[in-house]
Amino acid sequence: MYFAKMHGLGNDFIIIENLEENFLDYSKIATKVCNRHFGIGADGLLVVEKSDKADIKMLIFNSDGSQAEMCGNGIRCFAKYVYEKKIVSKNIIDVETLAGVLKAELRVINSKVDTVRINMGKPVIDKISSIYNSNLNNLNYDIKIDNKVFKASTILMGVPHTVIYVNEIDENEILFYGPKIEKLDIFPNRTNVNFVKIVDEKRIQVRTWERGAGLTLACGTGSCAAVVACYLNGLTYNLVNVELAFGKLKVEYIDDVYMEGPAEFICEGNFVL
Ligand SMILES: N[C@@H](CCC[C@H](N)C(=O)O)C(=O)O
């Protein structure tokens, strides 16, 4: 089967096409090809399918085989892929996802996509009982694990995101607490966990423990959720540069959330199913 490998700020994906809609077990394919030792290696699998309500449909599966509703870094890679492979010949593309139809605006230089701006839609701040099984104030509450107390916010940005406010980004802390927070009983569908350091009103740093993929180098939906949470808590402006491990995303919250950043091809080839 033909594949391309792409990344958005180091969050990497295998992309496959299934425009004829053959029966394929995507979850099984994801666990196989995403494995970094026995497969190609990636955080997730993106599938290109036909859509009857948008220009094209994107499906996303995490490296553990679980399906997610949306992926911020993934949708920028996906939009670049369908444009440069001439599957959709428009530079504003409507992409169907399980979180709704989202608009991808491509900045094209010499027929190549440089950056992609996505209208990520509206964050869900209240009424999130399906992801948040509690009557706490989900924008500002405490999570206690062992003897540690974290200030937290939980927001649905296509997928469930919990923001943990920290003074410093500490990878060991993320590896220790990330999986414990992901699986707390208050999150019936698990949660992505974003450790967020506020540098100033226009800059934050984010590292994410992702549901179904573990610690990744960047998370697009997580960066958007972090900006929404920081802005609504009065900690930043509504236009913020989000610094990830290897680059930046520009996120703006004006009713809808807009995210802009790069997408890159790594390689392409074939694998045996
Ligand atoms: N890396 C992504 C999010 C992918 C899905 C997530 N792991 C989930 O299960 O919710 C992004 O860039 O948004």
TrEMBL record:
<feature type="binding site">
    <location>
        <begin position="72"/>
        <end position="73"/>
    </location>
    <ligand>
        <name>substrate</name>
    </ligand>
</feature>
<feature type="binding site">
    <location>
        <position position="62"/>
    </location>
    <ligand>
        <name>substrate</name>
    </ligand>
</feature>
<feature type="binding site">
    <location>
        <begin position="220"/>
        <end position="221"/>
    </location>
    <ligand>
        <name>substrate</name>
    </ligand>
</feature>
<feature type="binding site">
    <location>
        <position position="11"/>
    </location>
    <ligand>
        <name>substrate</name>
    </ligand>
</feature>
<comment type="pathway">
    <text>Amino-acid biosynthesis; L-lysine biosynthesis via DAP pathway; DL-2,6-diaminopimelate from LL-2,6-diaminopimelate: step 1/1.</text>
</comment>
<feature type="active site" description="Proton donor">
    <location>
        <position position="71"/>
    </location>
</feature>
<dbReference type="GO" id="GO:0008837">
    <property type="term" value="F:diaminopimelate epimerase activity"/>
</dbReference>
<comment type="subunit">
    <text>Homodimer.</text>
</comment>
<feature type="site" description="Could be important to modulate the pK values of the two catalytic cysteine residues">
    <location>
        <position position="210"/>
    </location>
</feature>
<feature type="active site">
    <location>
        <position position="71"/>
    </location>
</feature>
<keyword id="KW-0963">Cytoplasm</keyword>
<dbReference type="InterPro" id="IPR018510">
    <property type="entry name" value="DAP_epimerase_AS"/>
</dbReference>
<comment type="function">
    <text>Catalyzes the stereoinversion of LL-2,6-diaminopimelate (L,L-DAP) to meso-diaminopimelate (meso-DAP), a precursor of L-lysine and an essential component of the bacterial peptidoglycan.</text>
</comment>
<dbReference type="GO" id="GO:0009089">
    <property type="term" value="P:lysine biosynthetic process via diaminopimelate"/>
</dbReference>
<dbReference type="Pfam" id="PF01678">
    <property type="entry name" value="DAP_epimerase"/>
</dbReference>
<feature type="site" description="Could be important to modulate the pK values of the two catalytic cysteine residues">
    <location>
        <position position="161"/>
    </location>
</feature>
<protein>
    <recommendedName>
        <fullName>Diaminopimelate epimerase</fullName>
        <ecNumber>5.1.1.7</ecNumber>
    </recommendedName>
</protein>
<feature type="binding site">
    <location>
        <position position="192"/>
    </location>
    <ligand>
        <name>substrate</name>
    </ligand>
</feature>
<dbReference type="GO" id="GO:0005829">
    <property type="term" value="C:cytosol"/>
</dbReference>
<keyword id="KW-0028">Amino-acid biosynthesis</keyword>
<dbReference type="InterPro" id="IPR001653">
    <property type="entry name" value="DAP_epimerase_DapF"/>
</dbReference>
<feature type="active site" description="Proton acceptor">
    <location>
        <position position="219"/>
    </location>
</feature>
<comment type="similarity">
    <text>Belongs to the diaminopimelate epimerase family.</text>
</comment>
<keyword id="KW-0457">Lysine biosynthesis</keyword>
<keyword id="KW-0413">Isomerase</keyword>
<feature type="binding site">
    <location>
        <begin position="210"/>
        <end position="211"/>
    </location>
    <ligand>
        <name>substrate</name>
    </ligand>
</feature>
